[in-house]
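Recall the central idea of this unit: under ordinary conditions, the amino acid sequence of a chain determines the structure it adopts. In this exercise we apply that idea directly, starting from the sequence alone.
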Amino acid sequence: MMTPHDQIRPQGHPFRARLPRAVALPAEESELKLFAVSFTAFFVCFYTFLI
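Accordingly, the structure predicted from this sequence is:
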């Protein structure tokens, strides 16, 4: 038995259908961003423990 949610799912939400497709970042760029965020988060946490 199909639920109302299953009937809506194939078309997607109208607002989402108007948005452009998301483009994935190249692997190197996303890894660099992850490193920068992790590095910054580590030092923020370390600094807050010292205060």
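The chain is about 65% helix and 0% strand.
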